[in-house]
Automatic annotation (TrEMBL):
This is Alpha/beta-Hydrolases superfamily protein. Gene3D superfamilies: alpha/beta hydrolase. It comes from the Eukaryota. InterPro entries: AB_hydrolase_fold. It comes from Rhynchospora pubera.
Length: 203
């Protein structure tokens, strides 16, 4: 979902004022050259790599990734590693969850999700009218310190060294949650809810 989608929906339904909670809005796309590499995802390469591996293992690797660095797959090793690799699931993710996701991805493949990153340039073109338009509403931003996107090139500088606050002049707070990966709402649901509630109470 693009940020403009819920905003357009609120405008259409005349629902103002409103609190909008967005998840995974791809902050990396704001980091200029840092996102250039995503455009080089050649069609079919990642799909071929994933097809060699059990879909459940692919999903487990993505969903449990908690290393404080960008995800890089060496050509000589590939993404899957040993098929006998045992991945211990966190409390918020069950084998039943993984099986359900895998069943759906077995039907559709991963191309749809990968195409988002292949279309970074197109996304830039589509959002061109808003390139220099700041977000003029109060904002609270939360991210896990083990989120791989937080460790993508340029992202932390953008968040903490003025770029973010320039684009979001009414930025209220940046919360970096310790020991949390990409899925903060599932890993720390109560803490995330408390942060949201404390933010809403201000208004």
């Amino acid at each position: 979902m693009k940020v403009i989608d819920p905003i357009s929906l609120l405008t259409h339904t005349n629902q103002h004022p409103s609190i909008v909670i967005l998840y995974d809005t791809n902050l990396i796309s704001k980091c200029n050259k840092a996102s250039a590499g995503f455009n080089q995802l050649e069609p079919g390469v990642a799909e071929a790599e994933f097809s060699r591996i059990d879909t459940k293992l692919v999903l487990k690797k993505f969903l449990t990734y908690r290393k404080p660095k960008a995800l890089i797959v060496p050509k000589e090793k590939g993404f899957g590693g040993s098929p006998d690799t045992i991945i211990n699931l966190p409390s918020w993710l069950s084998e039943e969850d993984v099986a359900y996701y895998a069943t759906n991805f077995d039907k559709t493949g991963f191309t749809g999700g990968l195409n988002y990153y292949r279309c970074m340039n197109l996304n830039w073109e589509m959002s061109a009218p808003w390139t220099d338009e700041p977000i003029k509403v109060p904002v609270k931003f939360m991210v896990g310190d083990l989120d791989l996107t937080y460790h993508s090139p340029g992202v932390q500088d953008y968040i903490h060294k003025g770029g973010f606050s320039k684009n979001v002049p009414f930025l209220q707070e940046v919360v970096v949650m310790e020991g949390v990966g990409h899925f903060i709402n599932q890993e720390r649901p109560h803490e995330v809810s408390d942060h949201i509630y404390e933010f809403i109470k201000k208004f």
